[in-house]
Design brief:
Blueprint: H1 2-25, H2 30-50, E1 53-56, E2 59-61, H3 64-75, H4 77-94, H5 99-121, H6 129-147, H7 152-161, H8 163-207, E3 211-216, E4 221-225, H9 236-239, H10 244-247, H11 250-266, E5 269-277, E6 283-292, E7 302-309, H12 311-333, E8 337-342, E9 348-351, H13 353-359, H14 363-366, H15 371-375, H16 378-394, E10 401-406, E11 412-422, E12 430-437, H17 439-453, H18 463-480, E13 483-491, H19 494-501, H20 503-520, E14 526-531, E15 534-542, H21 546-565, E16 568-570, E17 573-575, E18 579-586, H22 593-609, E19 615-617, H23 620-642, E20 645-654, E21 659-670, E22 674-676, H24 678-688, H25 691-709, E23 719-723, H26 726-729, H27 734-745, E24 752-757, H28 765-776, E25 781-787, H29 794-799, E26 804-807, H30 809-812, H31 819-835, E27 838-842, H32 847-855, E28 860-862, H33 872-885
Parallel strand pairs: 18-19, 21-23, 23-24, 24-25, 25-26, 26-27, 27-28
Antiparallel strand pairs: 1-2, 3-4, 3-7, 5-6, 6-7, 8-9, 8-12, 10-11, 11-12, 13-15, 13-18, 14-15, 16-17, 20-21, 20-28, 21-22
Length: 886
């Protein structure tokens, strides 16, 4: 039995050897190596089981416990799994009474080995002799425990004959195999680390572009590493073994030998620079460093030498020097930029030719002198000296600025001055000034300023300057209590003169008017041209008493009108002209400058409406109208934002009086003033653009209501008409917006009718037709509202994809008393019938009106006779009442 145990131990030693070989062979492919190690561990188990120690038929024991536990510990899950699978299959193949115990032993050993590995990998256990002995003892005690589940006689025989040798031998075997496998692992790890280090060193040496040489003390090339043979005297393969005297010139070889001897004798690093022709014929510069190797090579002292090709850097240095020379040359000779250099005490150290031209001093005259005495006016010297002192203290350049300096001859020169602080190591710091002559630009700016504030034709102040002076006058009036009058003057029939005589003649008149206005007013008054034929006069300092100030203003206005009535000589033609003047008086409580000009402008138009050649004063009625409109606009914007609007519905009926639909009408429910008439806010909404969000809201509200009715048997048949403003209709995204609303609300497009006015036809009819056709394709209908009041062409009418025409209420109301209105109504009904269009009359207020229209073929009606605009619930109640009556 002891021999059998020793035989098992021999197999373990073989396992150790084979595992090491496998790991070494498959080092580059670790996954494959693990499979092979698993097969090796498994094979050893199988061999052991094929030559076991047999106690009874089918009851065997062998070294598999050692093998599998070490497979788990040193091989990991894959190795242990493969070995366990092979061992399990072999044990099943052998069969016998101990199969189950044998399989449990396999699982036990693999599991404990993997558990030990888990603890080892996390640093909680080591793999020293004591730890391995404890582990081996623990595993085999567990195995002995499993053997106790064999038949009683077999277990007793095992305990008496084998238990103690088994426990001692395989515990020792576990320690020995574990130590051997640990040493194999450590050795392989060291070999792998060395191989990796060699690979990295090889890669680094190959990646370095420098030439790496090893010389012995006699100057022989011992080793050569270079990626480019062109950098070597001869190819690397031929260079090893040669002496520097064999491949270099005598002078170069002597320098290299001196370097080698100095390196070996003095220690440290020795440097050398040299140049030579490369093998390709290129002239190259090299920089080399040598250091003693520290070990003997072939029994001789040696140095390692690294040479770097510095040709590019040398060329770059040369190019930099040439560039600096060119820059200095350009800087000195550049004609438009003056550059000067100064030290901290103001001494001039640099003065280029542009400075000579700009300031009149030659370089010889300027160098060494204080720059403030040269070019700075006395008034600026103290401030410039302080700026300069601060810059030399902090190193922060003086901010760039425009300065007015002086030339050698004392004349002024405007420059834009920038500054740079230069600190060269080993030299005193300097300040460099870069000055650009902007004298011409300053003159141009003054001219531009004049053009910005004065009229180019009359040389009078323009609107910008007038507003500025008006604000000053108002501010002065606030302190003094005096009044200011603002005159807005427009020449009568000036456009006719321009159109008939030409703009040149018109300009002559404007020039003479400007001169007469200047001659008519006081020195403190401002006369301005506002563009076209518009002039303005600001007359400050009038009486604090309003009636007196008004009289003063009227007297001045009458004087101006009288002067302008005098004949003018326009290119040899006598011209008699007049003007209309609007005046507003301002005191300390008056409005702003812009409002004052608006007031005078409105008064001027009142003067034109009053027959021209007269004066009109701004009054409170004008102000109330303007204020009301401004207030209404603000409130309208708030109403749109706060949704103060509601939609009413006016019924539309057929000849039987049955409600067939309704027109949606928007109303403004003002929180203070109540219902605001549409005639007040709809035009303002159109003008301000608020009709767009308002129209979108109305359309969405009506479509959502139709969607709620869509499947209702009573209300689903009703058509809903929505008014669309021309501005809303002409939006680029109108079609897309309507399509999106139909999709989002779920409304039935066949029950939606968009009402358009004839004013749309005054713009692009083709574009209108394109939009209508796009929406008609979605199922929407179109009605032409207020037909007969606009400028519709029958040619356009037949092209428009309409479904209905509405007879305007102005014709409907007059059909009983005005034959013309009656004829127009009959013609519209006949026209609609001939074009295959529906027709509806709006504004039907009496039964007589309805009867007349019905007698002449009108099939549909809308008006107070059938119902005023009403809330939604009232409309629904009326529809239900109509159905109940039938």
């Amino acid at each position: 039995m002891f021999i059998e145990l020793v035989k098992g131990a021999s197999l373990l030693l073989a396992l150790c050897f084979l595992h090491g070989v496998s790991v070494q062979v498959w080092r580059s492919r670790p996954q494959t190596g693990q499979w092979c190690s698993g097969l090796i561990f498994g094979s050893i188990c199988v061999i052991g089981m094929l030559t076991p120690l047999t106690l009874e038929q089918g009851v065997i024991f062998d070294a598999r416990s050692v093998v599998l536990s070490m497979a788990g510990l040193f091989g990991g899950p894959l190795v242990a799994g493969v070995a366990a699978a092979m061992a399990a299959m072999a044990r099943l193949y052998l069969g016998g009474a101990g199969v189950l115990i044998g399989l449990l032993v396999i699982l036990l050993c693999v599991g404990t080995g993997l558990a030990y590995r888990w603890l080892w990998m996390r640093g909680r256990l080591g793999v020293g002799p004591i730890a391995l002995a404890c582990f081996g003892l623990l595993v085999h005690v567990a195995v002995l425990t499993l053997f106790q589940f064999l038949p009683a006689d077999v277990a007793q025989s095992f305990n008496e004959r084998v238990a103690l040798p088994f426990l001692l031998t395989f515990t020792v075997a576990t320690v020995i195999l574990g130590l051997l496998l640990r040493d194999v692992g450590n050795r392989l790890s060291i070999e792998h680390a060395l191989a990796d280090a060699m690979d990295r060193l090889r890669a680094i040496s190959q990646a370095i572009p420098d030439v790496l040489l090893v010389f012995d003390d006699e100057g022989r090339y011992v080793q050569v590493l270079s990626q480019d043979d062109d950098l070597l005297p001869v190819p690397a393969s031929e260079l090893v073994g040669l002496n520097v005297h064999d491949v270099l010139t005598a002078e170069a070889a002597g320098r290299f030998m001196t370097m080698i001897r100095d390196t070996l004798s003095l220690g440290g690093t020795q440097c050398i620079e040299y140049e030579r022709q490369t093998r390709s014929g290129r002239h190259a510069w090299f920089e080399g460093r040598a250091r003693a190797l520290g070990t003997l090579v072939n029994g001789r002292a040696a140095v390692v030498f690294m040479a770097r090709d510095v040709t590019q850097s040398r060329l770059a240095e040369k190019a930099l020097w040439e560039s600096e020379w060119r820059f200095r040359s350009v800087l000195f000779n550049i004609p438009a930029i003056s550059v000067q250099g100064y030290r901290e005490d103001g001494t001039t150290t640099y003065w280029n030719r542009a400075s000579e031209h700009l300031y009149g001093y030659t370089a010889e005259e300027a160098m060494g002198r204080d720059w403030l005495d040269l070019i700075a006016p006395p008034a600026l010297q103290e401030g410039l000296r302080e700026d300069m002192r601060r810059m030399f203290e902090t190193g922060i350049p003086i901010p760039a600025a425009e300065l007015r300096l002086h030339r050698k001859d004392g004349s002024a020169v405007d420059v834009f001055a920038s500054h740079a602080f230069i600190q060269v190591p080993g030299r005193p710091p300097e300040m460099f000034c870069i000055d650009i002559d902007i004298t011409g630009r300053k003159a141009a700016e003054e001219e531009a300023h004049h053009l910005a504030f004065y009229d180019a034709l009359t040389q009078l102040p323009n609107r910008r300057l007038l507003v500025d002076r008006l604000r000053r006058a108002l501010a002065g009036g606030t302190h003094s209590g005096l009044s200011t009058a603002v005159f807005f003057l427009g020449l009568d029939h000036f456009k006719a003169l321009n159109d008939t005589q030409g703009h040149e003649v018109g300009d002559l008149l404007l020039l003479q008017v400007g001169r007469r206005l200047r001659d008519s007013v006081r020195d403190q008054d401002t006369v301005a041209r506002l563009g076209g034929d518009g002039f303005a006069v600001v007359a400050p300092g009038l009486s604090a008493d309003a009636p007196t100030a008004a009289a003063q203003a009227r007297a001045l206005g009458e004087l101006i009108l009288a002067r302008l009535r005098e004949p003018c000589d326009l290119a040899g033609h006598e011209y008699h002209g007049t003007a209309s003047i609007g005046v507003t008086l301002l005191d300390r409580a008056s409005a702003s400058a812009d409002e004052a000009l608006k007031q005078a402008d409105m008064a001027m138009y009142r003067a034109k409406e009053s027959g021209r050649d007269t004066i009109s004063f701004f009054d409170s009625d004008m102000q109330r109208t303007v204020s009301r409109r401004a207030t209404l606009e603000v409130e309208l914007r708030n109403a749109v934002r706060q949704e103060q609007f509601l939609v009413l519905y006016q019924p539309q009926v057929d000849v039987a009086g049955r409600v067939t639909g309704a027109e949606a009408l928007v109303r403004w429910q003002h929180p203070v003033h109540g219902m605001v008439p549409p005639s007040e806010f709809i035009p303002l909404a159109e003008e301000t653009g608020l009709i767009l969000p308002l129209g979108r809201w109305v359309m969405e509200t009506v479509m959502r209501q139709q969607a709620r009715w869509r499947h209702d048997p009573v209300f689903g048949r009703l058509d809903l008409a929505i008014n669309v403003s021309p501005r809303q209709f002409r939006q680029e995204d109108f079609v897309a917006h309507v399509q999106a609303l139909l999709h989002d609300t779920g409304a039935d497009p066949a029950r939606i009718k968009l009402e358009l006015t004839e004013s749309l036809l005054l713009h692009s009819v083709d574009r209108a037709i394109e939009i209508m056709r796009a929406l008609r394709a979605q199922g929407l209908g179109f009605a032409l509202d207020d037909f007969g009041t606009g400028y519709s062409s029958l040619n356009y009418l037949k092209r428009l994809p309409l479904s209905q025409i509405k007879i305007d209420q102005s014709f409907v109301r007059g059909v009983l008393r005005d034959p013309s209105d009656a004829a127009i109504a009959r013609s519209i009904i006949a026209l609609a019938d001939s074009l295959g269009l529906g027709v509806i009359a709006e504004g039907v207020e009496t039964e007589a009106h309805r009867r007349f229209l019905q007698d002449h073929g009108c099939p549909a009606f809308q008006g107070y006779l059938f119902g005023r605009p009403m809330a939604l619930d009232a409309l629904e109640q009326q529809v239900r009442a109509g159905l109940a009556a039938r």
